[in-house]
Amino acid sequence: MVRYNETKPKFLGLKDTIAETVKLFEDNFKAEPINDWQGNEDFNNFTMGVIRDITLKFSPGFYANDLNQLALVCGADIPWADDHFQERISGTPTNPGDTYKNWPYHSNLDNSNYKDEKFSHTYQERFWPKMAGNENIPPGFTVDPNHGIRYQYGDLNDLISQLEDKILTRQAYLPIWFPEDTGAKGRRVPCTLGYYFYIKPEDLSIHLIYTIRSCDLYRHFRNDIYLTTRLLIHIYDILKTSHPNLQLGTVKMDIYNLHRFSNDKYMFDKKEKKIKLWQNNLIE
User: Is residue 141, in this structure, part of any structural domain at all?
Assistant: First the structure.
């Protein structure tokens, strides 16, 4: 399903949902000036095409047992996306981690300062925030887990435990956007807001609503769909042990701002043609 600008939803398979979203972008985007990008004012003279408030919904069940086919349908950047997914679910809140070095769109890897610095955040820090920022504690020393106003921080394991204990909970939300991001004042902050998981009691199917405030069509859109779908399948596989009748439901992706830099269009078109060629040759 794709819905944009209050149009009647179109119910499509995953491959066609992605293709329809790209077409909607090309048919509807407006060119806008950029004041800054990820807190960086070096992009002041750039423009980007933008559409706002678009929703995708699809069922990934066909690909649950064939992740290679899922990657192909999504057009994900493999092997980077697989490696980064494992980094996200590793249980270790690394910063910067390792997989950023192999991201296919880098322009900073020849910058020695970039290699040495910590990022403002990483997804593995947000998946596993209890000990984030404390990864360099000397041997023999201990620190308390990070704490909110009243409660200890939760992580991906807490979310899974919550679903295992109360399968119909309405509280299974994994936030990526933290209160500190609202106070960051122009710094680089997460594009993802969070992941909400819920189970429908009528057929015991698990569903995911993924909310993202800002998504780069060229660099991130296809990878975001793949990584999000992998997360749902990952949690589904774990929960099947305690709830063997569980079914795999849908992914709903709400994008507030879908954009592409104007000077990325040539490379974007080239990438899309390559993906279509792969898909036509390999998807039966």
Answer: no
Question: pLDDT tens across 23-61, in order?
Answer: 999 999 999 998 765 555 666 678 999 999 999 999 999
* Tally of CB atoms within 10 A around 260: 23
Contact 254, 70 (CB under 8 A): no
Answer yes or no: is pLDDT of 179 > 70: yes
Phi-psi region of 187 (alpha: psi -120 to 50; beta: other; left: phi over 0): beta
Number of domains in the chain: 1
Confidence at residue 39, expressed as pLDDT on a 0 to 100 scale: 57
Does 217 score more than 80 pLDDT?
yes
In one-letter notation, the amino acid at residue 56 is L
- Residue 82 belongs to a domain: yes
CATH of the domain at 206: 3.30.572.10
Examine residue 163 and state whether it is found in any structural domain, yes or no.
yes
CB 129 within 8 A of CB 158: no
For residue 119, the enclosing domain spans 2-134+146-282
- Residue 139 falls inside a structural domain: no
Q: What 3 state SS string does 182-213 have?
A: HCCCCCCCCCEEEEEEEEECCCCEEEEEEEEC
